[in-house]
Design goal:
Length: about 70
């Protein structure tokens, strides 16, 4: 019951934070190779990479919310 809900929250936090850090590091490495050619391209790359993590995070939050509602 209630303990399982706490464990779900804990697992989501433990999994999400390191995953986000890995994503940030990969973006930083990738930016070394794909930025600096044209300012508009740089802006697009930063905007897209800044927004792309929201989709998987929203899926995880929705899954957690759906399971907590029961």
């Amino acid at each position: 019951g209630n303990k399982l809900k706490r464990w779900r929250h804990f697992i989501v936090v433990i999994g999400t934070i390191p995953s986000l850090l890995v994503y940030i590091i990969l973006c930083m490495v990738l930016f070394e190779y794909v930025t600096g050619f044209y300012w508009l391209l740089d802006w697009l790359i930063y905007i897209i990479s800044g927004l792309v993590w929201i989709y998987p995070a929203a899926k995880i939050i929705k899954w957690l919310a759906d399971n907590e509602a029961h």
